[in-house]
Amino acid sequence: MILPIVAYGDPVLKKLCKEIPKDYPNLKELIDNMYETMDGASGVGLAAPQIGLPIRMFIVDTSPFSEDEELSPEQQEELKGFKRTFINAKITNEEGDEWAFNEGCLSIPDIREDVFRKPIITIEYLDENFEKHIETFSGLIARVIQHEYDHIEGVLFTDKLSALKKRLIKGKLVNISKGKISIDYRMRFPNQKKKR
To answer: All domains of the chain, ordered by start, with CATH?
Structure first.
């Protein structure tokens, strides 16, 4: 089932999310719905707060990036096969020189900005079967994980922009929160006036 994606301005996007237990109700169905929602919106990642749930879970599927012709065949292959569910994740290490990449977000449509992040991360997480993993990722995969991880920490990519950039996009952000945008996927807006 495709769920509405929560738009910028909703308080759930700024919450530090809570860990979830193994017996979390309807977990498999929730994960399936999140993948369906992400795919329906042509995303590469989706975090639980983006569907209104303040829990520490996000999903990543970088296969859409694998069609980028600027990448090497090895990079394309790596991105094509990367699809993971991250539960109760904790980034334990970030290293390397920060690099800029033009990021966007399903909760903040039509805004893309360069965000600086470290290129290599180590992350501990549970998969959908609650099996523990400790893995190191780099490049675009690390970037998508960091972006989604920020969501469960209550951080949006716009929080990482300079004061000047934030001022320049303020009007667009207000319009998003009021639902004054045109998008081709379901969204839930915090400040949209109810029709009588």
So the answer is: 5-185 (3.90.45.10)
